[in-house]
Automatic annotation (TrEMBL):
Domain Flavodoxin-like fold: residue ranges: 1-196
Function recorded in the entry: Quinone reductase that provides resistance to thiol-specific stress caused by electrophilic quinones. Also exhibits azoreductase activity. Catalyzes the reductive cleavage of the azo bond in aromatic azo compounds to the corresponding amines.
Similarity-based family: Belongs to the azoreductase type 1 family.
Enzyme class: oxidoreductase
SUPFAM superfamilies in UniProt: Flavoproteins (SSF52218)
Organism: Aromatoleum evansii
Pfam families referenced in this protein's UniProt entry, alphabetically: Flavodoxin_2
Cell division recorded as keyword: no
Database matches in InterPro entries: Flavodoxin_fold, Flavoprotein-like_sf, FMN-dep_NADH:Q_OxRdtase_AzoR1, NADH:quinone_OxRdtase_FMN_depd
Protein's name in the database: FMN dependent NADH:quinone oxidoreductase
């Protein structure tokens, strides 16, 4: 089993989403001792934004790219190869200003490539990253689960589904800014939900 863990918090040691993602990975490894783990941390090792130079590189045929363009495309190729190789994907996703971190979006922009990870057919869009199980570890200062203010979960379901990843489970650490008791409860509840999911 190949596990890909993608962390996207700007924080290293103090990150709640990474802590939760680690917990999911620990559980997966306990059940699959031989599992191979790749950790991609786009918080501490940011991926470049999709700017005009990047688009120019992507839309230039491979054999005509300048060395700089080839190098830019190669950065995305690495992330695409990682997700293609993964059987299980664990995403650590903090809430920043009601959305996903810009670095997480940069990761999505890197892995979404026409004819490689999705394609359009006569029947519409077809995601090509099929057969993967995805776990998402969410961390929020407030509480939004199941409400209209939670724009992250609908977005993640749609964008992951677009790429072919339709088997997605969400774990929530919410209310982390609502005092130490709420924080403790949030982690305990998230941990319970993880244990229940792997029971
Ligand atoms: C820049 C920034 C924006 C944030 N925006 C929100 C927000 O819109 N809603 C919310 O509930 N929490 C918000 N928070 C709180 C974080 O979601 C919370 O601290 C969470 O633990 C961050 O994930 P992390 O611990 O993995 O870094 C924000 C935190 C930061 C640093």
């Amino acid at each position: 089993m190949n596990i890909l863990q993608v962390n996207s918090s700007a924080r290293a040691a103090a990150s709640a989403s990474t802590r939760l993602a680690n917990s999911i990975v620990e559980r997966l490894r306990a059940d699959n001792p031989g599992a191979n783990l790749v950790v991609r941390d786009v918080g501490s090792n940011p991926h470049p934004v999709l700017d005009e130079a990047a688009l120019g590189a992507l839309f230039t045929p491979a054999e005509q790219r300048t060395p700089a363009q080839a190098a830019r495309v190669a950065l995305d190729d690495v992330l695409i190869a990682e997700i293609q190789a993964a059987d299980v994907v664990v995403l650590g996703v903090p809430m920043y200003n009601l959305g996903v971190p810009a670095q997480f979006k940069n990761w999505i922009d890197a892995i979404a490539r026409a004819k490689v990870t999705f394609q359009y057919t006569a029947n519409g869009v077809e995601g090509l990253l099929k057969g993967k199980k995805v776990y998402v570890a969410l961390a929020r200062g407030g509480k939004y689960r199941g409400t209209d203010w939670d724009a992250q979960v609908p977005y993640l379901k749609v964008v992951l589904g677009f790429l072919g990843m339709t088997d997605v489970s969400f774990f929530y650490a919410e209310g982390l800014a609502m005092g130490p008791e709420a924080e403790q409860q949030a982690f305990a509840e998230a941990q319970r939900e993880i244990e229940a999911a792997f029971a």
